[in-house]
């Protein structure tokens, strides 16, 4: 499960650039699902930005809800087709416009008719923000965007293992997703799962390989051109520090 509680089905990330935005611009069930995925994946980076520029908890929540209402109404989707670029940058630019243009006049009732567009756990969000020491609202947004991407890919990978009936294997191998002093821990995993230690090493290699493939697919869906994927990956890793 992703950090914000989002479930991402079976690793099904869009395979082409801007697929979510394009799908969300329709009027069918697929469009609604695409917009819901956008909201679920990326509400927290925007909420964190709103809080860091000085908004109260209530105003940050209302602004995030209101922004996605505008997205669902199609107010910003046409701009997406015109501007494209990186989805990460596009969403923040649109959110800034929303705050600038509608901050004083927008209310929860006017924005959503009293209905929530997405579920925001403000208490959990505030706990997550308490650990942040990044002063710049933009830098905080970038870091939280990178974490949302990472969490989404890990969830998709876990879903794939679950479909194959290998959830326990995934949970045991997950600590080794990133390279480190993993060799020391292979023996314990081998004993718990009844595997040979070298077989655990092979399983970790396959896990990392699939993780890399899913990360590439996910990032490809947030940039305009495939040639930008590697640069975006490096930027996200840099944002994570």
Brief rundown of the structure:
This protein is mainly α and about 240 residues long. It has helices at about 20-25, 30-50, 55-75, 75-85, 85-100, 110, 120-130, 135-165, 165-175, 185-195, 195-220, 230-240. The chain has twelve helices and no strands.
Give the helix/strand layout.
Layout: H1 19-24, H2 29-52, H3 57-73, H4 77-83, H5 87-102, H6 108-112, H7 122-130, H8 137-163, H9 167-173, H10 183-193, H11 197-220, H12 229-240
For the record, give the distance between the C-alpha atoms at the N and C termini, rounded to a whole number: 23 Å
Largest sheet: none
Question: What number is the mean pLDDT?
Answer: 76
Helix content: 55-70%
Find the count of extended strands (DSSP E, 2+ residues).
Answer: 0
Structural class: mainly alpha
Strand content: under 5%
Radius of gyration, rounded? 19 Å
Number of helices: 12
Overall morphology: elongated
Query: Which stretches are low in confidence, meaning pLDDT under 50 for 5 or more residues running?
Result: 1-17, 106-115
> H/E element string?
HHHHHHHHHHHH
Notes on the protein architecture:
This protein has 241 residues and is mostly helical. It contains 12 helices and no strands. The chain has helices at 19-24, 29-52, 57-73, 77-83, 87-102, 108-112, 122-130, 137-163, 167-173, 183-193, 197-220, 229-240. Helix 8 crosses helix 9, helix 8 crosses helix 11 (197-220) and helix 11 (197-220) crosses helix 12. It is elongated. The two termini are 23 Å apart. The model is unreliable at 1-17 and 106-115 (pLDDT under 50).
């Amino acid at each position: 499960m992703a950090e914000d509680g989002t479930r991402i089905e079976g690793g099904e990330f869009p395979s082409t650039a801007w697929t979510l935005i394009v799908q969300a611009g329709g009027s069918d069930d697929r469009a609604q699902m695409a917009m819901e995925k956008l909201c679920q994946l990326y509400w927290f980076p925007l909420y964190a930005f709103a809080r860091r520029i000085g908004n109260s908890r209530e105003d940050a929540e209302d602004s995030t809800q209101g922004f996605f209402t505008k997205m669902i109404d199609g107010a910003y989707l046409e701009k997406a087709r015109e501007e494209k670029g990186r989805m990460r940058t596009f969403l923040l630019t649109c959110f800034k416009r929303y705050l600038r243009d509608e901050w004083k006049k927008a209310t929860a009732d006017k924005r959503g008719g009293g209905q929530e567009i997405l579920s925001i756990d403000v208490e959990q969000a505030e706990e997550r923000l308490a650990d942040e020491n990044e002063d710049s609202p933009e830098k905080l947004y970038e870091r939280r965007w990178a974490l949302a991407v990472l969490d989404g890919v890990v969830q998709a990978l876990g879903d794939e293992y679950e479909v194959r009936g290998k959830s326990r294997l995934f949970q045991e191998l997950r600590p080794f997703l990133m390279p480190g002093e993993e060799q020391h821990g292979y023996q314990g995993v081998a004993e718990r799962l009844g595997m040979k230690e070298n077989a655990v090493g092979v399983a970790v290699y396959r896990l990392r390989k699939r993780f890399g493939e899913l990360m590439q697919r996910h990032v490809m869906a947030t940039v305009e051109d495939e040639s930008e994927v590697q640069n975006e990956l490096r930027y996200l890793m840099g944002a994570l520090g």
